[in-house]
Model the fold of this input.
Amino acid sequence: MPYPHLLKPLDLGFTQLSNRVLMGSMHTGLEEEKKGFNKLAAFYEERAKGGVGLMVTGGIAPNFAGRVEPFGSQLSHFWHVKKHKIITSAVHKHDSKICLQILHTGRYAYHPFNVSSSAIKAPINPFKPKALSERGINKTIRDFVKCAGLAQKAGYDGVEIMGSEGYLINQFIAPKTNKRTDQWGGSFENRTRLALEIVKQTREKVGTDFIIIFRLSMLDLVDDGSTFEEVVQLAKLLEQAGVTILNTGIGWHEARIPTIVTSVPRKAFTWISERVKQEVSIPVIATNRINTPEIAEEILSSGQADMVSMARPLLADAEFVNKAAADQSDKINTCIACNQGCLDHVFARKRATCLVNPVACYETELVFKTTSKAKKLAVIGAGPAGMAFSSYAAEKGHDVHLFDAADEIGGQFNIAKTIPGKEEFYETIRYFENKLKDENVTLHLGQFQSVESLKAMGFDEVIVATGITPRTLDLPGFDSDKVLGYIDVLKLKKPVGDKVAIIGAGGIGFDVACSLVQPESHTLDLEHWLDYWGVDKTYENRGAVKPITEDKVNKTVYLMQRKDTKVGAGLGKTSGWVHRAELKRAGVKMINKVEYKSLSDKGLEVVIDGKQQYLDVDNVIVCAGQTSNSKLYDELKESGVTVHLIGGASIAAELDAKRAIRQGADLAAII
Done:
């Protein structure tokens, strides 16, 4: 059997899990949509059908104060039970189990009625919390217990009590946020009282044959967080109080250490799960940046954990477990940890989805039914949009021919994969290579096509996905060899001097800057990465944080933009701060409101804040946007061919693989 440890059942005594895969909690936004629970049921059922042993829902509040936002989901009343039964009934059609996560956000609640252990405002929230009174604490405990009881009535197999990531329970546990002087603050015993009372009273309420997962913050990654000794002591007390499984929590949301973005090395935090596992006898779950069955098997076979939590990887591919069981890991659509479709959407109050899997959270809407009339289709351009359309259209039964002038598929992904911290894009290209082969898409690489050649081959319809052309700047001196494009730097690897000006501070500008100032080991060497971000594996300090170690950078880099907004303002909410921090630490000078004039022997002439300056640079790298390659589309349309335009060839405002892949999928669904 492939992956024997990953696929081995886990006996919990009163019940058994079919394998060691936990789909970790993910808020999708469907929890708040009208008729969203029917869509949620389809989302979870796809993962249950795909072989997941145990799932945890997105966070559901036990009371109003604990909601993520004013209209966030809550399970507190008997009339809430009915809609949750839609989910549990769908999951239980298959050999899978599901737990409801009880999440009280505490001071992270994005509304003015938030509460916490003490009245200390979170740096990531404009609303200052009210300190809970003793009466309020006891009511909160009762609300957790009631929520668990209602979850049991709704058919859930258990609950996960959220005690990490800096949410309410974690706020009571850590000295950083708990400044109380009563029986709920001060000593370790007092600070952990809330967590233990919730677990004890929940176990009394639900009985013995019900899963209770406690998500324990094993690394707070903030100053004045828990010590390792306190983490272990609490883990043992939670076991005694009736917890079935301990899940690993890594980092508070306000921590200035990245924990889930692409640049975080795979299985970066399993070492702490391993240490805690040695101290308890109940199963321990490892989490964060585990995205392949090989990595999961390695964690389990080495004894670092009893289960692995994979949330976003199961957003990316609902069939992850079944494909692993069939020894087809090369066909898994791997999560690249970009956060663009999932977390960035949720923070923007939009429905979550996935850059590499647009069907995620749209299972009832984006459907690919077998066609009753197969067409011969030409797809011009094998970038993200072209690859996505081709694979989905062929899946429906169309005869698809995919053309590209390059000698490889991937388009802009072939540039992205070269950037330190974005190596995961290799996985996406590998997935599409296999998917196109499995769906019998005919590839025609290394050749251009024209209206005449396409007409001669007799296609019913043509899909133009020819992507973009990087924009050049028509300025004096910009015909110099000193001026490079981002493709020259990232893909063609042309040499770059030690003094560089980057024109354009969008995503590509940041990628170019990162490629210039970061060593290749930055994201591939775990020990280097932990030192760089100040994660203390020795756990000598509270919160496991230590002074950071800087990479030595011998380059002078200017990252400039015309806009008067903050440099990097357009980057993703959950990853942009990481890129800005890395470049700031490398000494990159990020400048806005720049007017570009010329390039001469004096240097790059610019106007900044109304003042003319000459920047002494060896090279200028232009990352000033793109223009759409839509000429072929226009010519085909004029000649009467039925033609469609998708991807960057349609909209070239920013390189947006998420939009491109979704456009390809949407067209394939209706063609």
